[in-house]
Design a protein that fits this description.
mainly alpha; 2 helices
Length: 36
């Protein structure tokens, strides 16, 4: 996978959420933030 510098931080953050099994909480918080 090749990352552009401007997308690297977001890609690493998402990868960390997946690798730590924290995706469900992260996604729920994201959706709640968008709904507010």
């Amino acid at each position: 996978m090749f990352w552009k510098q401007e997308n690297a931080e977001a890609a690493l953050h998402l990868r960390c959420q997946l690798k730590t099994n924290n995706w469900s909480m992260f996604y729920a918080d994201l959706l709640n933030g968008l709904a507010a």
